[in-house]
């Protein structure tokens, strides 16, 4: 009797184990008949499903199994699978925001230069390609879309304030951040509206325009002497009176933009949709110009092949096909993801993109121009947490909790504490 | 197979099996029946606990090598981490602001729901429990809109009566009240249902006798209801204390504010692990958090013993 109880216990246990294993190891199983299934982890909005179906049709024997999870979950799932040593997919999307952490452990991914990735370098924007490659020439991922930043502005508010309204004139009149702040003060005085939503936005925009941020390329912390960081901080403090102190991507932001509380938004192309969603009544009131002093990048990702994959060659063939200029163009047309391949920026589909909501009828052209202005910025794994500290510190000034000097000092102290740990 | 074994080894296994009398067998099978819990607890409860303790002595970013650093994480946490102590303070403040009114409101609601005159009881009982099963994400989005600084309903109402708007996301008071009210909204119904179960165990005779003696409803509430359900109150206080130490989703979704005024202990733990990838440090926080919850529970126990004995 004891034995039979034990037996059934073992049986129950092994069922549990089998269930646990089969849910974990979904990577690269053959479905029989020599077919190869490539598992691909993405998050919603990447728009690859249609293209994957096309690839399956053109390449019999290859199945693409796309599995989506929310943005943060997708990355945490990947990191967990990498740490566990099993369960990672054949192909995984990795966003810019997680890339530096992933690059620290590049041994857990196939080096795509072994498969000939170097030959593709010329197809992509330099700064984008450099993000995913190391000094020793190894390549961790193939670039997908990008998020070059420009400035959307309310023509009616600018007109009321006596500011120029034509995009070229705006870009010229607000060529520097000082000009921009001056214009903002004029706008505030004449119309009562703020120039932009949140001081953290300006800080990020200026920070991204320098090639060096918090660290030297050898990892030395230089935050206190970094010219770009000091500039970003000082300008943000100067602009304190012309920001509405409303955080992005909150219900408040949507209400404020519908109400015309602020006149400009620094945005990558994917964020145009947020304005359209939140303020549908403002159609025809917005135009787009270049940002002061260049551009910057916000968002965009890479396709990587974890070294747990059994089919790196097939995976490589698929992702380089998927991210080829022609296919990026198709994805852009269908889904709006801005291509990272400058070779197609002159295509009518990009150049003459006109959605009727924004005044200018060559939205694609202005973002393509912004894309070429983006600088190659050095980031480190700790860059993202430090950004949060610095933006929060500016937030305490905006909320009236701290004076600028005290906020700077405590932010530096916190940065030092976190990086020295 | 058994017969073979018997022939080859006539003594050893056979004799032992004979020794099992019914009593021993019952005992063994009893342990086997309860063993799934202990096995599962061992795998999913004990192992993580011990592994967390082990991790807390290391520096580890999950993908790289684990580096043993002794007590450094704990020393850093206790001597050089203002953010953690801020999180501890915030947690207690939010806990006090949510638990005390919440349990009081739940008790009153349960008392009302238990009244004989009330029609459609099941409807009310069901609806009071709804917030607890509503998606917390939806709750947080709605509350973010209610507690908006410039376009929130509450500040709008304040402006109607001529009061200054409150900076909900930019001040300690505002953020703590907003998060507490979300916690309260979610758990009031849960505690009400527990209280209701307690109230129904009180004999109706007591209330009838009190009514005959001329006690009104409020007197009945304070002199019959509360003393009779004291053990249940103690139970809910303990549960809410432990829950209150672990508030996480509400501040995560509402936003912690620029001065980290909404940062709670569990949220800090989460940020260290999944945003800064300092898993060793996060493990140390987890153990300190565990100790804090133990201390809070102990204090609860001592206080409630006192109350019981008086």
TrEMBL record, chain A:
It comes from the Bacteria. Pfam families: SBP_bac_8. Keywords: Signal. InterPro entries: Bact_solute-bd_prot1, SBP. Residues 1-19 form the signal peptide. This is Extracellular solute-binding protein. It comes from Shouchella hunanensis.
UniProtKB/TrEMBL annotation, chain B:
Residues 8-22 have a biased composition (Basic residues). The keyword Chaperone does not apply. Its main location: membrane. SUPFAM superfamilies: MetI-like. Residues 1-22 are annotated as: Disordered. It is found in: Cell membrane. Residues 88-300 form the ABC transmembrane type-1 domain. Keywords: Cell membrane, Membrane, Transmembrane, Transmembrane helix, Transport. Signal peptide: none annotated. The chain crosses the membrane at residues 31-57, 92-113, 133-158, 178-199, 220-242, 279-303. It is a multi-pass membrane protein. PANTHER family: ABC TRANSPORTER PERMEASE PROTEIN (PTHR30193), INNER MEMBRANE ABC TRANSPORTER PERMEASE PROTEIN YCJO (PTHR30193:SF37). Belongs to the binding-protein-dependent transport system permease family. This is Sugar ABC transporter permease. It comes from Shouchella miscanthi.
């Amino acid at each position: 009797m004891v034995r039979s109880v034990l037996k059934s216990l073992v049986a129950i246990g092994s069922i549990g184990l089998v269930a646990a294993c089969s849910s974990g190891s979904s990577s690269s199983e053959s479905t029989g008949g020599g077919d190869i299934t490539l598992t691909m982890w993405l998050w919603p909005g990447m728009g690859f499903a249609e293209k994957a179906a096309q690839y399956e049709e053109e390449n019999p024997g290859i199945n693409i199994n796309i599995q989506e999870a929310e943005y943060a979950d997708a990355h945490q799932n990947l990191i967990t699978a990498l740490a566990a040593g099993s369960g990672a997919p054949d192909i995984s999307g990795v966003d810019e925001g997680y890339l530096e952490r992933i690059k620290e452990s590049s041994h857990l991914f196939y080096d795509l230069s072994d498969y000939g990735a170097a030959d593709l370098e010329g197809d992509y924007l330099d700064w984008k390609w450099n993000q995913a490659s190391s000094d020793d020439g190894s390549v961790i991922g193939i670039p997908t879309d990008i998020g070059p930043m420009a400035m959307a502005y309310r023509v009616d508010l600018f007109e009321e304030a006596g500011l120029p309204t034509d995009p070229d004139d705006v870009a010229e009149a607000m060529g520097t951040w000082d000009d921009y702040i001056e214009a903002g003060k004029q706008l505030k005085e004449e119309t009562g509206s703020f120039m932009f939503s949140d001081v953290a936005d300006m800080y990020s925009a200026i920070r991204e325009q320098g090639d060096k941020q918090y660290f030297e390329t050898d990892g030395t912390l230089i935050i206190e002497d970094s010219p770009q960081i000091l500039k970003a901080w000082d300008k943000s403090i100067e602009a304190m009176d012309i920001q509405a102190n409303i955080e992005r991507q909150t219900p408040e932001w949507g209400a404020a933009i519908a109400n015309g509380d602020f006149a400009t938004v620094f945005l990558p192309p994917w964020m145009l949709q947020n304005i359209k969603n939140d303020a549908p009544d403002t159609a025809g009131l917005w135009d787009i110009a270049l940002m002061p002093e260049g551009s910057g990048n916000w968002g965009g990702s890479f396709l990587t092949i974890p070294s747990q994959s059994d089919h790196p060659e097939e995976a490589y063939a698929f992702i380089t096909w998927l991210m080829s200029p022609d296919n990026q163009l198709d994805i852009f047309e269908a889904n709006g993801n801005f291509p990272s391949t400058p070779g197609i920026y002159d295509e009518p589909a990009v150049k003459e993109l006109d959605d009727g909501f924004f005044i200018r009828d060559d939205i694609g052209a202005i973002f393509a121009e912004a894309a070429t202005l983006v600088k190659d910025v050095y980031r480190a794994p700790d860059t993202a947490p430090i950004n949060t500290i610095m933006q929060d510190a500016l937030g305490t000034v905006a909320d009236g909790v701290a004076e600028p000097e005290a906020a700077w000092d405590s932010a530096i102290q916190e940065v030092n504490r976190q990086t020295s740990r | 197979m058994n017969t073979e074994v018997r022939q080859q080894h006539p003594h050893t296994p056979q004799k032992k099996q004979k020794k099992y009398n019914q009593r021993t067998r019952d005992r063994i099978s009893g342990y086997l029946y309860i063993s799934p819990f202990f096995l599962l607890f061992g795998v999913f409860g004990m192992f993580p606990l011990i592994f967390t303790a082990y991790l807390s002595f290391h520096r580890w970013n999950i993908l790289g090598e684990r580096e043993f650093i002794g007590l450094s994480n704990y020393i850093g946490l206790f001597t050089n981490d203002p953010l953690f102590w801020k999180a501890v303070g915030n947690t207690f403040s939010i806990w006090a602001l949510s638990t005390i009114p919440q349990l009081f409101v739940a008790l009153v609601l349960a008392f009302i729901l238990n009244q004989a005159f009330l029609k459609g009881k099941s409807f009310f009982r069901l609806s009071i429990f709804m917030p607890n099963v509503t998606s917390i994400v939806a709750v947080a989005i709605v509350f973010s809109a209610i507690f908006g600084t410039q376009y929130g309903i509450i500040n709008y109402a304040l402006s109607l009566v001529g009061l200054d708007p409150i900076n909900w996301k930019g001040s300690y008071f505002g953020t703590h009240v907003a998060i507490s009210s979300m916690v309260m909204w979610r758990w009031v119904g849960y505690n009400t249902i527990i209280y209701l179960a307690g109230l129904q165990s009180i004999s109706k005779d007591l209330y009838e006798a009190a009514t005959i003696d001329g006690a009104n409803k409020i007197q009945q509430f304070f002199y019959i209801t509360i003393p009779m359900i004291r053990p249940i109150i103690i139970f809910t206080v303990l549960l809410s204390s432990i829950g209150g130490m672990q508030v996480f989703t509400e501040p995560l979704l509402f936003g912690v504010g620029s001065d980290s005024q909404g940062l709670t202990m569990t949220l800090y733990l989460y940020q260290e692990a999944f945003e800064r990838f300092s898993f060793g440090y996060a493990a140390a926080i987890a153990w300190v958090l565990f100790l804090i919850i133990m201390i809070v529970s102990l204090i609860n126990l001592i206080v409630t013993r006192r109350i019981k004995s008086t």
